[in-house]
Amino acid sequence: MNKNQTAFTLAETLITLGIIGVVAAITIPTLISNYRKKQLEAQIKTTYATIQQTLRFAEDDGVSYSTVADGSNAAMKEWFDTFIAQHMKVEQVCINRTPKGCWHQVYYPSGSKYGNAEGIGDNILGFTIAKGASVTMDGYNANDMKNAFGIDTSESGLIFFFDANGKTKPNVLGKDVYIMAWTEKGLVPAGYSKTQSQIEINCYTGSGHYCLNKVINNNWEIPDKVWNKKVKYQQ
To answer: Cα separation of 37 and 54, whole Å?
Structure first.
């Protein structure tokens, strides 16, 4: 070895490895989080488009939001099989929480429970899409459509709750769980009749009901304010 050559000492090597470790510890979680966010955003867009296309086919068959069978389990199942299932690949269908497995417990951004492990609403029709999303839907009157979901309408409509990545966490409104409605206005996100300011307040600091509206207007990207918010799940 040339006497003028120098080599790293053990201490210098350890310091370098330590710096690399710190940088990795800081950057890798961020990279993973960003990847999961992008993946979820694609799933949200795909799920919305799938249901939107299915409802257009249903409308071509002469079916509208006002003709949904809401009553006996047999009538609801027949309606679904006739007008929805034939236009969409589904893995499982649940009528009034039977059988179990179409839905799961979801949460508000505050961490409190929203609905239960079988669905949201009363006469619930739920299903899982072959692409991975879970969906539960129920009819609501005009007053509920306006006050609970921010959609001004003079008629009853059908509310869709969907979890774009199924049972995989976070299972939180505004992150992977979203709300849209089938009304005389077509398929629209909750908060459709609200101002952008009202939508942002609801999505950033409120119930999260209007977050799909914000995501759509944000070029199908989940706002960082929503994505980075920590959720303390309540039992």
So the answer is: 26
User: Could you write out the DSSP letters of every residue in 105-123?
Assistant: -EE-TTS-EESBTTBSSSS
**Measured distance CA(186)–CA(225) in Å, rounded:** 29
Q: Is the peptide bond before 99 cis (omega within 30 degrees of 0)?
A: yes
The DSSP code sequence of 27-43 is HHHHHHHHHHHHHHHHH
Alpha-carbon distances of 4 from 1, 58, 83, 94, rounded to whole Å: 8, 81, 83, 78
Q: What is the pLDDT of residues 72-82, one digit of tens each?
A: 888 888 888 88
Q: Helix, strand or coil for residue 170?
A: coil
Residue where the block lists tokens 């307040």: 201
Sequence-ordered alpha helix ranges (H) in 61-185: 73-83, 142-147
In the chain, how long is the greatest CA-to-CA distance?
91
DSSP 3-state of 97: coil
Q: Write down the pTM of the prediction.
A: 0.86
